[in-house]
Design brief:
Layout lengths: L2 E5 L3 H12 L3 E5 L3 H9 L12 E6 L3 H13 L3 E6 L5 H9 L7 E6 L20 E5 L6 H13 L3 E4 L2 H24 L6 H4 L4 H7 L6 H10 L1 H25 L4 H22 L14 E8 L4 H11 L6 E6 L5 E8 L1 H13 L3 E3 L1
Parallel strand pairs: 1-2, 1-3, 3-4, 4-5, 6-7
Antiparallel strand pairs: 5-6, 8-10, 8-11, 9-10
Helix pairs in contact: 3-4, 6-10, 10-11
Catalytic activity: prephenate + NAD(+) = 3-(4-hydroxyphenyl)pyruvate + CO2 + NADH
InterPro entries: 6-PGluconate_DH-like_C_sf, ACT-like_dom_sf, ACT_dom, NAD(P)-bd_dom_sf, PDH_C, PDH_N, Preph/Arog_dehydrog, Prephen_DH
GO molecular function: prephenate dehydrogenase (NAD+) activity
């Protein structure tokens, strides 16, 4: 691949353009908002100049509802040898293109499984996709050259290619992305009119659950409008679980011992199923989750504290597998939770204690 055209210079389009430009590909940028394309170009993502002729690959980074229109226009102009889109829904756009009678041998639907709560070109980074799955949904009609161009793009972005059927992809993202986002928003909505005294008690748990609720509502309306059926099916199942859970909790309020016992059994079953599902979430490097031990360290909110603690862990010969930070409400301090292999926990605790760090059990 020597040339590319990125149509749509938001977070995903600009990030892909930055990665391609960094690897020597000449990238042309286009957007319905010229100012957004100008910003992406200023960041080094490419040039606003139109290409002299067909490019090797056109990357359509438009909302799902607009993908078919943008792709059809680009194909009619003969803008590229191959065409892909990066929308988060795959089945609908493909069916729209088929209904228009277009030759889809030069097209493949794709979806990089990466993003941020922020949107727009200023939020873009060349390493946004690094190590992340990038779904490809070829059909029997997809030209081999186009598939190879798509794989080359994924390689330039240092992502991990995953081949799936388009409709299977849409059901999967409904489960792992779209439905959780709505549930996160529903939980966060409980905080909108909550008493300030209650909100001040927020800890890491509520932060984890509501983090993705900070995303742009306009973007999510576009996404959910393109994949409503699978998301609604999943929420129906969640609603049934909620009803059962409410009944179990009400039973725990009963004066009848048998009903209380039944309620406890119902809650235990919900928690058990949650445990069974959570352990299936891939862990580090996509492997099966591993049990790490946590070494919790109290740190002051001062420059260089995190760098020091990681450096001290390194000098102790301990690899930090994961890290979480729990911020203390109203205080200039926080609790850094270092996840390490169980056999390394005691050595790390001893080394950090000797260096003056405050360890919390």
């Amino acid at each position: 691949m020597r040339t590319a055209l990125v149509i749509g210079t938001g977070l995903i389009g600009t990030s892909a353009a930055l990665a391609l430009s960094a690897r020597g590909v000449t990238v042309h940028l286009a957007d319905h908002d010229p100012e957004q394309a100008r910003t992406a170009a200023a960041l080094g993502a490419g040039t606003e100049d139109a290409p002299d002729g067909p490019v090797d690959l056109a990357v359509v980074a438009a909302p799902p509802a607009l993908v078919a229109d943008v792709l059809a226009d680009a194909m009619a102009r003969g803008a590229a040898r191959g065409y892909i889109d990066v929308a988060s829904v795959k089945g609908g756009p493909r069916r729209e293109l088929e209904a228009r009678g277009l030759d889809l041998s030069a097209y493949i639907g794709t979806h990089p499984m990466s993003g941020r709560e922020k949107s727009g070109p200023l939020a873009a980074t060349a390493d946004l996709f690094e190590g992340r799955p990038w779904v490809l949904t070829p059909t029997r009609d997809t030209d081999t050259e186009v598939l190879n161009l798509a794989l080359e793009l994924v390689s330039h972005c240092r992502a991990v290619p995953v081949v799936m059927d388009a409709d299977a992809h849409d059901r999967a993202v409904a489960l792992v992305s779209h439905m959780p986002h709505l549930v996160s928003s529903m939980v966060a909505a409980r905080l909108e009119h909550a008493e300030e005294a209650a909100v001040r008690l927020c800890g890491q748990g509520i932060r984890d659950v509501t983090r993705i609720a900070a995303s742009d509502p306009r973007m999510w309306i576009d996404i959910l409008s393109a994949n409503p059926g699978p998301v609604a099916d999943l929420l129906t199942d969640v609603a049934a679980d909620l009803e059962e859970t409410v009944r179990a909790l009400r039973a725990l309020q009963s004066a009848d011992e048998d009903k209380r016992r039944e309620g406890g059994t119902g809650i235990a079953e919900v928690l058990r199923r949650g445990n069974a599902g959570q352990v299936r979430v891939p862990g580090k490097h996509g492997s099966a989750p591993r049990a790490y031990e946590t070494v919790a360290v109290l740190i002051d909110d001062q420059p260089g504290q995190l760098a020091r603690i990681f450096a001290d862990a390194g000098r102790a010969g301990v690899n930090v597998e994961d890290v979480r930070i729990e911020h203390a409400t109203g205080q200039q301090a926080g609790l850094v939770q270092l996840m390490v292999e169980p056999r390394a926990a005691a050595a790390l605790t001893a080394a950090l204690t000797e260096l003056g760090w405050s360890i919390r059990q």
